[in-house]
C-alpha cells in the first residue's frame, strides 16, 4: 500500500512534527545520560587501580552544615502503600510447627510465604491470586525463582520455582496464561503453579541456605557446608548424564578419593550465606558467614565455571584500614551484605560490600587474571549523600514502579517587558523520557542491519544480518512494553492530570515564578495572578502535547521493534535478499530512530519482502498477515492486510491451470484490490495483471481507483469549467484521474504494439536436441493481442466515466487509431470532438473526424454541414482537390439527408452546395491551367498557393487592388437592378484575379458559361483569343 500525500496542515503532518519534537527530547536526554559520570568518578577515584575514601570530611555532606539547609531526618525510603496478608494465610500460622519464611519475587509481582512444608504465593499489589503447593513432606529451607533455559522446557512454562528441603530439591513450573508481553503483564494475569514437579534431586544431607540463578537459567545454591552447588538440568537424559544432577563447584572432582572422615576432621565449615551474580560480566560472588568473599568466572558465554579469587575478611579489613587510617577498624567487620554493580552502572566498580556499621566497600574484579585488589573504595552509604543527589544513574530501575505524578514543573523567572517564560517539564515528563532513552539507548542511533561476508563453497558472499540479536531485541521489547502499558493505563496524564490542581504550589511560589516583579498595589498583584494563570495554562498545554508525542513515539518504537523481531524469527538474511537494492542500502545506513519516525516506506518494503517469502513458498499469508496486524498495526494497516491477500491470490493464479478456477481467483484478487484501490500501486498491479492476461481487471481496477481518489468528482468539474488555473484542488484531482486512466491506455498501447509485431521466422536450431525456448512463453500472438484489445475497447465503452472516455479518445487519436475511434458507440464522442474544435486543437483533423463520425452514425445532414465548413476553411492543410472532395461528399450527404427528411432548408442547402461545386471546379481548372502553362513563373506560384488555401470569397473582392475592375465585372454578371449573389461575386473574383489577370481564355469562357452570361460579343472575343492562341502554338511547333 502507498501512503497518501498529506498537506502541511493535515493531521499526518502535525503527528510527524510531534514525533520529531519527541525524538529531539529523547536525543537530548540520551546525550545527557551518555555524559553521566561513572560511579568511580562520582566517588572521586583519582585514577585506575587507585583507592579512594569518602565520608570523612564535611564536604561529603552537602545538605548538612551551618550555612546550608539542615535536613536532620532525610528519609531514605518511603512507604507508598501497605497491602495486608491475605486472610486465608493468616490463619495458617496457627498450624506452624517448625519454620516459616517470607520473601518477594519482583519479576512476577508475587510475594511468597512458607509455613513448614507448604508454600503460598500471591499478588502483592492487591493481595489476590493466591496459589499454594503442599506436596512436600519435609520443611522448606530455601526458595528461589528461576527463568528457565531456552529450549529445555515447554513454552507455557515461564518460570521455575525451586524449593529446597533437608532431603531433596524440587523444581516446579510457573505458568502465566496471558503471557509476558510487558513488564506488568504478571500483575494483571493469573498465575498457575503446576502441581507435578518437573525435577527432583536429593540434597545428600546438605543444608541449603539460599538459591540464586543467572539470566541464562543456571541454578546455584549456597550450602551450609560452605560449598557452592549448581543444579544442572536438561530436556532428556544422556548416556553419561542424568536429566537433573547436582554439581559441587567448591570441591575438586577428585575429592571423592579422600575419606569423608578425614575431610570432616581437618576442615571447619564456613557456610555460604549469600550468592550475588553479575549477569553483565558473567561473574558470580559468594559471601560466607565468616566474611570470606569468593569470585567465580562464568566464562564469556555464561556457561563456564572457574574460581578465580578468594579474599578473607581479615585481608579485607587490613586493606580498608590502610586506606582509611583514621577510622576504627572494628567498623570494617563483619560484612553483612554484598551487591553487584553491573556494567550499566559502572565500568570500573564491580562489587559493593556493606559492613554492619553501614560502610560500603567497592571492589574491582578482572576476568583474565585472578582477582586483583586494585582499589578499594570506602564511603558511608547511610550518612554520606553525594552532591549529585536526585540524579539517577543510567541503569534501568526494576520493577518499573516509581512513576508517580508530580506537578508539571515551575516557570522560570520572568519580567513582562524583557524576558519570556520558559516551560520546565515536570519530573513525570522527564522521567518517561529518561526511561525510554535508557531502554533504547544501545540501538537508538544504530542501523537495523549490518553486512557480513560468508563463505559458500569457493565463493565469498555478502549478506545482511540483524545488527542486534534476537535475545537482546526481546529484552528491549519487554522493557518498552512495560512503559507502553504504563502510559496506556495512565492515559489520564494527557487530559485530566494536567489540570490546575496538579499545578498546586506553596504560597510563596508566586514571587519565585514571577522573579523580580514588585507588587505595587492591587493592580500589580492582579497582573501577577493573570500572568501566572496564563503561563500555567500554556505550560499545561505544552506538556500535554509533548506527552502525547512521546506516547506516540513509544507505540511506534514498540511496533518497529516487534517487526524487527519478526524478521529475525523468519531468517533475517533471506528476507533482506528480497528487498530492492535501494532499500538494502538504506537499511544499512539509516538509524533505528529514523526508521521509527520517517521510515514508513522502508517498513513497508520490509513487510512486503517478508510476505513475498511466504508467497514464494506457496504458503498462505493469512496467518502472517494477522500477526502483523496484531504486533504493528501502525505499520501494517487493514488496507495492507487486504493488499497482501490480494497479492497472494494474484501470485497463486499463475500456478492454476484450470481456466475457470484461474478466472475466479483473479476476480477475488480484483475485488480485494478494488477495496483499497486509492492506496494501491496501480502500475505494479496492472503489470502483474497483464502478465496473467487479466486485461478486464486492469480496466475495472483503474476506473475504481479514479473514482475513489476523486469521490467528489472535482476532476470532471475542473475539465468542464475550462481547466481554470486558480482551481488547484480540481487540477490535482484531474491529474490523479489521468494517472489512473494512463494505466489503461498503456495496457491498450501494449496490446496494439503486440498485434502489429512481426512474427518470428522459423530458424534452424543451433544444435541437435529438444527445442530451445527463445521467446517469452507468456508473450501473446498477434491474433490474441488484437482480440484482447477489442475486448478492452468494448468494455471501456460501457463506462459511465466521461473523463475516462475523453482520455481514451485522445489516446486513440494520438495512436492513429481513428478507425477504432469512429467505431465507439458513445454519447461523449460528439461532444468531445466539438469541444476540441472550439479549442482550435488540431481543428482540421478533428472536423474530419466529426463528419466521419456523423456519416457512420447516419447523421448525414450534420455531416454535410461539417464537410461544407471544411471546404470553406482557410487553411494550408487542405488542398484544393480535398476541398473539391469535401464538397462532393457534402452533396452526397445532403442528398442522403433530404431523402430521410424532406425539409425546405435541406433543399436550399443542397442547391448552394451544387452551385459551389461548379465554382470549385472552375477554381480547380484555373489552378491546373496555371500549373500546366505558367508553373515556371515565380509570380504564378503565389496564385497557385492562394487557390489551394481557400475558396474564393466575396470578402476578397474589396480587399484586392482590382476593386474597380471587379465592380465592373459584377455589372457583367449581374443584370441591372438585380442584387448579386455570392456565387456571382466568386465568379467575378475568379475572373478578375486569376482568369483575366493571367489571360486564361478557356477559363474565362467557363466562368461566363457558369454565370449564365449571354453577351455574344464577349463570348466571340474569347473564342477568337482561344483560336489565335491555338494557332500560335501550332506554328511554334511547326518551326521546331
UniProtKB/TrEMBL annotation:
Residue ranges occupied by any Nucleoporin Nup133/Nup155-like N-terminal domain in the UniProt entry = 75-361
Superkingdom of the source species? Eukaryota
GO MF annotation, one: structural constituent of nuclear pore
Q: Where is the composition biased (Polar residues)?
A: 754-764
Q: Which UniProt keyword terms apply here?
A: mRNA transport, Nuclear pore complex, Nucleus, Protein transport, Translocation, Transport
| Pfam families tied to this protein | Nucleoporin_C, Nucleoporin_N
> What segment(s) does the record annotate as region Disordered?
754-774
- Tell where it localizes: Nucleus, Nuclear pore complex
Nucleoporin Nup133/Nup155-like C-terminal domain mapped to chain residues: 426-956, 987-1029
- Annotated protein name in UniProt: (spotted green pufferfish) hypothetical protein
Protein species of origin: Tetraodon nigroviridis
Amino acid at each position: 500500500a502507498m501512503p497518501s500525500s498529506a498537506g502541511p496542515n493535515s493531521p499526518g503532518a502535525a503527528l510527524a512534527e510531534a514525533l520529531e519534537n519527541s525524538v529531539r527530547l529523547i536525543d537530548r536526554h540520551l546525550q545527557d545520560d551518555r555524559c553521566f559520570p561513572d560511579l568511580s568518578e562520582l566517588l572521586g577515584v583519582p585514577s585506575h587501580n587507585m583507592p579512594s575514601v569518602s565520608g570523612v570530611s564535611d564536604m561529603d555532606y552537602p545538605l548538612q552544615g551551618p550555612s546550608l539547609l539542615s535536613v536532620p531526618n532525610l528519609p531514605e525510603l518511603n512507604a507508598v502503600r501497605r497491602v495486608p496478608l491475605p486472610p486465608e494465610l493468616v490463619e495458617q500460622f496457627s498450624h506452624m510447627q517448625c519454620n516459616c519464611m517470607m520473601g518477594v519475587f519482583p519479576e512476577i509481582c508475587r510475594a511468597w510465604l512458607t509455613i513448614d512444608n507448604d508454600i503460598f504465593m500471591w499478588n502483592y499489589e492487591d493481595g489476590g491470586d493466591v496459589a499454594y503447593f503442599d506436596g512436600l513432606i519435609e520443611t522448606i529451607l530455601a526458595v528461589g525463582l528461576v527463568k528457565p533455559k531456552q529450549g529445555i522446557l515447554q513454552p507455557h512454562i515461564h518460570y521455575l520455582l525451586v524449593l529446597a528441603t533437608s532431603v531433596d530439591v524440587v523444581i516446579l513450573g510457573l505458568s502465566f496464561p496471558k503471557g509476558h508481553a510487558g513488564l506488568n503483564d504478571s500483575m494483571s494475569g493469573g498465575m498457575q503453579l503446576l502441581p507435578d514437579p518437573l525435577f527432583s534431586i536429593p540434597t545428600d544431607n546438605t543444608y541449603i541456605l539460599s538459591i540464586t540463578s543467572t539470566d541464562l537459567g543456571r541454578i546455584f545454591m549456597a550450602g551450609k557446608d560452605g560449598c557452592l552447588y549448581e543444579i544442572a538440568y536438561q530436556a532428556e537424559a544422556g548416556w553419561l548424564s542424568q536429566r537433573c544432577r547436582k554439581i559441587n563447584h567448591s570441591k575438586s572432582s577428585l575429592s571423592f578419593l579422600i575419606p569423608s572422615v578425614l575431610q570432616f576432621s581437618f576442615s571447619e565449615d564456613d557456610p555460604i550465606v549469600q550468592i550475588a551474580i553479575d549477569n553483565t560480566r558473567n561473574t558470580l560472588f559468594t559471601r560466607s558467614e565468616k566474611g570470606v568473599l569468593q569470585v567465580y568466572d562464568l566464562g564469556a558465554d555464561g556457561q563456564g565455571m572457574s574460581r578465580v579469587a578468594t579474599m578473607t575478611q581479615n585481608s579485607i579489613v587490613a586493606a580498608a584500614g590502610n586506606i582509611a587510617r583514621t577510622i576504627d577498624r572494628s567498623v570494617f567487620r563483619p560484612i553483612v551484605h554484598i551487591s553487584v554493580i553491573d556494567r550499566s552502572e559502572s565500568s570500573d566498580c564491580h562489587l559493593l560490600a556493606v559492613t554492619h556499621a553501614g560502610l560500603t566497600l567497592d571492589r574491582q574484579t578482572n576476568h583474565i587474571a585472578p582477582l586483583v585488589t586494585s582499589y578499594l573504595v570506602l564511603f558511608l552509604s547511610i550518612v554520606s549523600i553525594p552532591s549529585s543527589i536526585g540524579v539517577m544513574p543510567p541503569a534501568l530501575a526494576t520493577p518499573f514502579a516509581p512513576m508517580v505524578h508530580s506537578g508539571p514543573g515551575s516557570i522560570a523567572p520572568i519580567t513582562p517587558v524583557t524576558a519570556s517564560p520558559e516551560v520546565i517539564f515536570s519530573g513525570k515528563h522527564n522521567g518517561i523520557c529518561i526511561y525510554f532513552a535508557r531502554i533504547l539507548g544501545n540501538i537508538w542511533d544504530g542501523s537495523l542491519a549490518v553486512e557480513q561476508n560468508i563463505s559458500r563453497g569457493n565463493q565469498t558472499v555478502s549478506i545482511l544480518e540483524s545488527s542486534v540479536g534476537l535475545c537482546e531485541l526481546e529484552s528491549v521489547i519487554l522493557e518498552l512494553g512495560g512503559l507502553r502499558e504504563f502510559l496506556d493505563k495512565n492515559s489520564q496524564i494527557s487530559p485530566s492530570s494536567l489540570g490546575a490542581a496538579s499545578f498546586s504550589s506553596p504560597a510563596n511560589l508566586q514571587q519565585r515564578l514571577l522573579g523580580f516583579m514588585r507588587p505595587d498595589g492591587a493592580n500589580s498583584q492582579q497582573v501577577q495572578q493573570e500572568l501566572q494563570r496564563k503561563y500555567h495554562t500554556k505550560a499545561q498545554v505544552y506538556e500535554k502535547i509533548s506527552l502525547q508525542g512521546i506516547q506516540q513515539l513509544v507505540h511506534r518504537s514498540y511496533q518497529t521493534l516487534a517487526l524487527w523481531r519478526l524478521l529475525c524469527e523468519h531468517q533475517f538474511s533471506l528476507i533482506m535478499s528480497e528487498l530492492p537494492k535501494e532499500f538494502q542500502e538504506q537499511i544499512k545506513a539509516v538509524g533505528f530512530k529514523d526508521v521509527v519516525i520517517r521510515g514508513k516506506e522502508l517498513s513497508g518494503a520490509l513487510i512486503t519482502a517478508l510476505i513475498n517469502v511466504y508467497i514464494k513458498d506457496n504458503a498462505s499469508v493469512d496467518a502472517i498477515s494477522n500477526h502483523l496486524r496484531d504486533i504493528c498495526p501502525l505499520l501494517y494497516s487493514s488496507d495492507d492486510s487486504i493488499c497482501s491477500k490480494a497479492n497472494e491470490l494474484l501470485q497463486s493464479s499463475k500456478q492454476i491451470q484450470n481456466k475457470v478456477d484461474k478466472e475466479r481467483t483473479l476476480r477475488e484478487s480484483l475485488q480485494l484490490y478494488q477495496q483499497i484501490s486509492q492506496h494501491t500501486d496501480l502500475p505494479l498491479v496492472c503489470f502483474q495483471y497483464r502478465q496473467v492476461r487479466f486485461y478486464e481487471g486492469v480496466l475495472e481496477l483503474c476506473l475504481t481507483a479514479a473514482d475513489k481518489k476523486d469521490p467528489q468528482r472535482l476532476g470532471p468539474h475542473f475539465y468542464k469549467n475550462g481547466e481554470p488555473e486558480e482551481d488547484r484542488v480540481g487540477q490535482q484531482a484531474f491529474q490523479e484521474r489521468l494517472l489512473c486512466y494512463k494505466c489503461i491506455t498503456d495496457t491498450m498501447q501494449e496490446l496494439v504494439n503486440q498485434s502489429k509485431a512481426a512474427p518470428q521466422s522459423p530458424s534452424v536450431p543451433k544444435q541437435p536436441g529438444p527445442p530451445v525456448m527463445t521467446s517469452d512463453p507468456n508473450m501473446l500472438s498477434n491474433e490474441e493481442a488484437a482480440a484482447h484489445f477489442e475486448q478492452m475497447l468494448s468494455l471501456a465503452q460501457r463506462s459511465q466515466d466521461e473523463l475516462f472516455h475523453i482520455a481514451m479518445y485522445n489516446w486513440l487519436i494520438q495512436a492513429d487509431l481513428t478507425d477504432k475511434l469512429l467505431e465507439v458507440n458513445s454519447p461523449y464522442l460528439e461532444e468531445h470532438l466539438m469541444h476540441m474544435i472550439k479549442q482550435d486543437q488540431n481543428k482540421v483533423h478533428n472536423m474530419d473526424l466529426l463528419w466521419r463520425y456523423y456519416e457512420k452514425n447516419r447523421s448525414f445532414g450534420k455531416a454535410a454541414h461539417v464537410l461544407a465548413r471544411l471546404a470553406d476553411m482557410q487553411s494550408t492543410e487542405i488542398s484544393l482537390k480535398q476541398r473539391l472532395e469535401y464538397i462532393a461528399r457534402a452533396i452526397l450527404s445532403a442528398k442522403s439527408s433530404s431523402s430521410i427528411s424532406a425539409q425546405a432548408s435541406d433543399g436550399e442547402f443542397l442547391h448552394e452546395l451544387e452551385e459551389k461545386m461548379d465554382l470549385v471546379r472552375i477554381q480547380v481548372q484555373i489552378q491546373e491551367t496555371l500549373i500546366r502553362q505558367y508553373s515556371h513563373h515565380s509570380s504564378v506560384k503565389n496564385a497557385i498557393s492562394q487557390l489551394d488555401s481557400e475558396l474564393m470569397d466575396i470578402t476578397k473582392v474589396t480587399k484586392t487592388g482590382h476593386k474597380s475592375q471587379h465592380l465592373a465585372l459584377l455589372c457583367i454578371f449581374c443584370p441591372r437592378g438585380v442584387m448579386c449573389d455570392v456565387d456571382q461575386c466568386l465568379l467575378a473574383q475568379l475572373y478578375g484575379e486569376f482568369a483575366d489577370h493571367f489571360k486564361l481564355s478557356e477559363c474565362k469562357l467557363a466562368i461566363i458559361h457558369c454565370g449564365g452570361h449571354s453577351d455574344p460579343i464577349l463570348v466571340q472575343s474569347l473564342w477568337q483569343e482561344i483560336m489565335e492562341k491555338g494557332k500560335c502554338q501550332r506554328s511554334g511547333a511547326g518551326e521546331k
